[in-house]
Amino acid sequence: MDPPTDTGPLRTGALPPTFPEEAYFNSREMPNTIPERIQKLQNYLTQLHSQAEKIAVVTSGGTTVPLERITTRFIDNFSMGTRGAVSGEQFLSKGYDNAHVDL
């Protein structure tokens, strides 16, 4: 299945779609803040890696996914990041340094 081509360039490094959801997300441009966030996380993890033996990266927070190109409907969960915060605390108690990325 080829992803739709009428919505702009594919994401860099996008994998060939296996499921319709992958075709959808591969055919959308990622938010313009993502590259900067990725770079900051990579810099932090590089610094942390030189100091820590075990590292856990925990992502959490709510998610909103548009259903159309001009968003009038979307799927949303109302997560506040509590499970991610608790997971991070558990990793800390097991000797991991961690990065908690609130999405």
Architecture overview:
There is one protein chain. The protein is of the alpha+beta class and 103 residues long. It has 2 domains: 1-30, no CATH class; 32-102, no CATH class. Helix content is 34%, strand content 19%. It is built from 3 helices and 4 strands; from the N terminus they run ααβββαβ. It has helices spanning 20-26, 34-49, 82-93, and strands at residues 55-60, 63-66, 74-77, 97-102. The strands form 2 sheets. The protein has a two-stranded parallel ribbon with strand order 1-4. Strands 2-3 form a two-stranded antiparallel sheet. It starts with 19 loop residues before the first helix and ends with a strand.
Write the layout of secondary structure elements.
Blueprint: H1 20-26, H2 34-49, E1 55-60, E2 63-66, E3 74-77, H3 82-93, E4 97-102
Parallel strand pairs: 1-4
Antiparallel strand pairs: 2-3
Number of domains: 2
E-strand count: 4
Order of secondary-structure elements: HHEEEHE
C-alpha termini separation: 29 Å
Helix content: 25-40%
Largest sheet: 2 strands, parallel
Rounded to the nearest angstrom, the radius of gyration is 17 Å
**Arithmetic mean of pLDDT:** 77
β content, as a range?
A: 15-25%
Poorly predicted sequence stretches spanning 5 or more consecutive residues: 1-10
Structural class: alpha+beta
Largest sheet, spatial ordering of strands: 1-4
What's the number of helices? 3
Tell the overall outline: extended
Short account of what is shown:
By secondary structure, the protein is an alpha+beta fold. The protein has helices spanning 20-26, 34-49, 82-93, and strands spanning 55-60, 63-66, 74-77, 97-102.
